Records
---
Amino acid sequence: MENNTREHFVAVQKNGDGDLTAFKTSAGRVLDYNQALNEVESGTIAGANVFKAKGGSLRIRGDADGDPSNNLDQLPIFE
């Protein structure tokens, strides 16, 4: 599947600590963290990948492309 046909994240929600908790996709779907993690792993979502953090938990991060403006932390916040 081409990147331009797959959904990508366009906005995020964060908790009080600034951790990402939910994502809005380019198709307007809202995914909680675990749903988003599963969809990134399965290849449904473009522009992000899953990595194993310290302690062994799986986390989502944006693909490294040298453009800090599209890092997941820099996406707009949605209600």
Note: The chain is about 15% helix and 35% strand.
---
Amino acid sequence: MPSVLPDGEPVPEDGALPATALAGAERRPLGFYLHVPYCATRCGYCDFNTYTASELRGSGGVLASRDNYAELVAEEVRLARKVLGDDPRPVETVFVGGGTPTLLAAADLGRMLGAIRDEFGLADGVEVTTEANPESVGPRYLAELREAGFNRISFGMQSARRHVLKVLDRTHTPGRPEACVAEARAAGFDHVNLDLIYGTPGESDADWRASLEAALGAGPDHISAYALIVEEGTQLARRIRRGEVPMTDDDVHADRYLIAEETLSAAGFAWYEVSNWATSPGGRCRHNELYWRGADWWGAGPGAHSHVGGVRWWNVKHPGAYAQALGEGRSPGAGRELLSDEERRVERILLELRLAEGCPRELLRPAGAAAAARALEDGLLEPEPYGRGRAVLTLRGRLLADAVVRDLVD
């Protein structure tokens, strides 16, 4: 969740949505994202809306601390119930992200999930995920999470090499994420993800291979691997600008991606989104698929984004301002936008082309269709799906995904 929010039109104080947003809602999946903005320390590459202080006050002196945070989120869930009215949909996915959600007590995360269960109900087979810092959990905590209803967990591993973790300002000890996977399995978690980052300054091919092998050896059923993006305003960006560490170029990123694909495929993982691999369809992150397919989700917490029926909105960024709005009975929404049919078409191409199933060619305008034909000739799109009316990236196409998308959206 980036720390800079976009502009937009005002959100009504009661959070009300236009009737068009709720039309046909019963045919779309509904999920919840719950943002926990607290971190013990700030990683050098992080540009997310996070805060290291244990408590923060808004301009009106309203307290937003770890101690009362679960109740604040529960209050926004109750607001969501009012806004969505008699919407009959049970919630299909819940994802708790941050920050470091596991800085809160497991009971608090359970209380937030309980508010969703009480207000909306949870679908049979609901996926309930939380992110976790490896140093912030142990066997007892994980058992409490599982008892509270969580069945999927995502650990931030990033690298198995100490010097790489140091550049990223990650505080966990190498080997701890792998141990967490075993502890999560013992606690009864059905699905476990490890997040990896490649392209960190000073990382070698050997370092990256070692991280992949360590992750695979831990036995997760899902691995996410992301190229490091150096965001302006971060500590890492300042270090690169001062010449303290080198910038990694795009060719290195491409080489590391190919290493990831080769290593993960050989271990029985299949890609289903450009940066995500799973051992089976059941191991995929259904919550992220909900984003990529343009379904409905409500994001609760400071800076959280939501989308329902073509209306997208985002909350105030600061925890104190968030607490103050809810305390005054107002929506914490900072701004919103109503997406046009054309904007929704473009977003479908942007997101669905990154999936293993690709996007329907019928979404393409003439210029985009011509670009798709060229991409096919250049080996960037798979021939067989193309013949069935779908644009699906080849491995080479995945390396150039951003460029292919730009061409296909005209």
Note: The mean pLDDT is 91.
---
Amino acid sequence: MADFFLQALGQVSSPSVLALIVIGVLFGIIGGSIPGFTVTMAILVVFPFTFAMDPVSGVSLMVGVFVGGYSGGIVSGVMLGIPGTPSSITTVYDGYPMAQRGEPGRALGIGVAASFIGTLISVAVLVFFGPLIASFSMNFRPWEITALIVFALTLVAGLSNGALLKGLLAAALGLLITTVGYDRNSNLRFDFGLPALGSGFEILPVMIGIFAFSQLMGNLEKLRDDQGEVKGVDTNVSIPYRRILKDMAGQKLNTLRSSLIGSLVGALPGTGGTVANFISYDQAKKFSRQPETFGTGTPSGIVASEASNSAVAGGAFVPTLALGIPGDLPMAIMMGVLILHGITPGPLMFEQNPVLVGAIYASLLIGAVIMVLCQLLLVRWFAKISLIPQEVLVPVVLMLCAIGSYALNNNLFDIWVLFVFGVIGYLLWKAEVPLTPLILGVVLGNNLERQLFRALELNDSWLTFLTRPLSALFLALALASVIFSLYQDRKIQRNRQQAQRSDAGAD
């Protein structure tokens, strides 16, 4: 392990790759600083630029965006009271009140320090547990992999906040999209007489359309409501370094606990920084000796939020690299980068591409250091960037998305694909259908079909999925996930009905 890591470190430490990491971190921070832009959007915009790069350079650039994006959300959260990304929502609870009482530099400094430590701890989790899970999964055959993908999709759909049926339908729609084009036996499916559909849909235009287009259209809808909210913001920020060191010295246990929560939650398919954010904030409040100070500007709240959402980075790589199952939406895009370069994530990746795995480790570490330096040195500029109006931002990002989709194959059809799926994604968003299960269905669909057919070619009996212990376990977990989600949905509906009755009684 030491040999391939040193070899990877040598490649990542080259001036060109280091420059790409710096660019990625800066772009990620900028993207995270702009309310409504999100980490995923930043990754989607940068994705097309990796086409002409070698695997190490492309992955290093994306890792830089990943690390910078998760830390960038703190800027608008502290300065404006508006979370730059969904994974920094709880940062606002204490960061904004601290800034309001005249300590924005302290709030930003605590958040950056917690993000740095959270990233380091998550890298340690990835280094130790990634190879172990990959080694264990070497025993997986097509039956186990098929059942694991089914479990991942049901788990994601089950985390759709009271919309299980919509989540399952979204996942099914994602799988359906991957069936367009030729199958394993060279039979043409769902081409509708269009020759361009013979090779199916490219993942990049579909993902950009479904997620980025719909998100940007939603941002435009909110413009009228948000007008005038950001006036009079003081961006003249200075970082009190000694005070921050003192604050962090008293947050050792909180930082460690929140980082481990973030790493663990990041390793679960379909969860990501938002879920980790709320869980770690809740746990920090429960373990605190002064829970009443949370929400008033306490360092504990900022540490819990920022350490956890940054720790998601390393944790989310564990299932992506070891099993080929993306931990969250940004990881699904990262998986697309690897596939684009002819590398299939999964247990064999640690044997066939150890240098690339080591490059991911090294990029995360170097990216974390660059993130701290950039945030502390350029925080005033990032605070100004957070004030960019949406009416300027949205057209620019849409243009970049269209250029990136066209650059994939120099094919105008891909821009039409982006537009069509953008409209579909926007309509689904309006109908409150979760988009994450759909995206993961698109990413995992081809692998699911390939493994399912391979299993049936080896043994045409469906009972084999139940007679093999691991595949039966994953299918049982998938069923349990659906049942538990149904229970949660009914509980949510019951609570809503009770609240409505209480409101009616009060009237």
Note: Strands lie at 181-182, 188-189.
---
Amino acid sequence: MPSALPDGEPVPADGALPASALTGAADRPLGFYLHVPYCATRCGYCDFNTYTATELRGTGGVLASRDNYAETLIDEIRLARKVLGDDPRPVRTVFVGGGTPTLLAADDLVRMLGAVREEFGLAADAEVTTEANPESVGPDYLATLRAGGFNRISFGMQSARQHVLKVLDRTHTPGRPEACVAEARAAGFEHVNLDLIYGTPGESDDDWRASLDAALGAGPDHVSAYALIVEEGTQLARRIRRGEVPMTDDDVHADRYLIAEEMLSAAGFDWYEVSNWATSEAGRCLHNELYWRGADWWGAGPGAHSHVGGVRWWNVKHPGAYAAALAEGRSPGAGREVLSDEDRRVERILLELRLEEGVPLSLLRPEGLAASRRALMDGLLQQGLYEAGRAALTLRGRLLADAVVRDLVD
């Protein structure tokens, strides 16, 4: 969740939504994202809305404390119940992200999930995920999460090479994420993801292959592999600007992506979104699919974004300001926007084109349709799906996904 917030109109003090937001809601799945903004240290590449203890000291007082954060976030879940009124939908997915959610006690994460269950109910087959830092969990912690209703976990591995982790300012040791997969399996987690990053300055093709080998050897059923994006204002951006580490170019990113596709496919993983692979449909991250398909979700926590029925809003960033708003009985919303039909059409193209099945050609304007025909001729879109009325990326198209999306939107 990037730290910068957009502009928008004010959010009412009670958080009330326009009546149009819940029109047809029963036909849309509902998810919850629960943001935990705390980290033990700040990674050099991270631009997310997260805070270390040092960064919070003196800026939020007791309100920003990790010790009472679960209760504060539960207050927002209760606010969500009031705002959504008699919405009968049970929650289909819950995703706890950060930051490092597992810096909180396992019982705190279970209580947060319990509040969603109490206020809304969970679907019988609900997907319940938490992100985890490999160094902040152990067998007992994982067992508590599993017993409390979590059934999916995502470990931040990034790399198996120590010198790559050092550039990223990651604190875990190589081998620990793989051990966590085994511990999660022993605790009863059916679905386990490992997050990887490629294109770190100083990483070689062999380093990347070693990371993929290590991840696959651990036995997850889901792997996410993201190209490193150097965000302005981060420590890594400053180091690159000073010439301390080299910038990785787009050709290297493309080569690393092809290596990932080759190795993951050979190991029985299928891509279903440009940066995500799973061994089965059940192993896919359903919560992320809610985002990509424009469903409804409530994001609770500092800086968290929400979307319900074409209304998008976002919370104040700082944990102290967030807690103060809820303590005063106010919505922590900082701003919101009501999406027009055109906004929603464009967003569908931007997001759904990244999915395996692509986007309906019926969403494209004449200029976009002309661009799609050129993309088809250039081998960027799949012929069979195109003939069936969908624009879906080929492997080469995935390498150029951002450019293809721009052309189809234009």
Note: The radius of gyration is 21 Å.
